[in-house]
Amino acid sequence: MPNQPNKIAQLRQRQRLLQILIFSLITIAIWVTFSLFRSQKKTVISAEQKRLAESLNPTIKTEVLQKLQQKRIFSEGELAVFPIYKILISKDGRQSEVVTIETTETELIPASASPSPVATSSTSRAASPAGVLTE
User: What angle do CA 43, 44, 46 make, to 5 degrees?
Assistant: First the structure.
């Protein structure tokens, strides 16, 4: 009978291995089923996508070509002297001026022009040593 406990231990080990294999098989089956279900999702095509997927009209509208031919075309010489403008705005945001592209900020707007105090004419009142206001 000494062999009996050894055989029982082997049977329990095999039973445990069988349980692990069955659990793994069930897990793999669920995983495959879920992957198939997820890959078979139906995609919905919106009306906008259907409209964009329609084939183009193969006819050429001659009116559009005529309008393009009537547009003004600039020569290289005209483009070379064509002025390009930009708007310079002071750092405080109070001044702005339209200038040509070659003009720099330092040429036009002073860096930090702070307003200087201006004397105003008003009647001054002073307090006398007794605390009475005099004019």
Answer: 145
Say what the pTM is: 0.31
* Sequence-distant (≥ 6) Cβ neighbours of residue 37 within 8 angstroms: none
Q: Is 113:104 a contact under the CB 8 Å cutoff?
A: no
3-class secondary structure per residue, the chain = CCHHHHHHHHHHHHHHHHHHHHHHHHHHHHHHHHHHHHHCCCCCCCHHHHHHHCCCCCCCCHHHHHHHHHCCCCCHHHHHCCCCEEEEECCCCCCEEEEECCCCHHHHCCCCCCCCCCCCCCCCCEECCCCCEEC
Distances (CA, A) of 1 to 4, 9, 14, 65, 66: 5, 14, 21, 105, 108
pLDDT tens digits, 118-134: 555 544 444 445 444 44
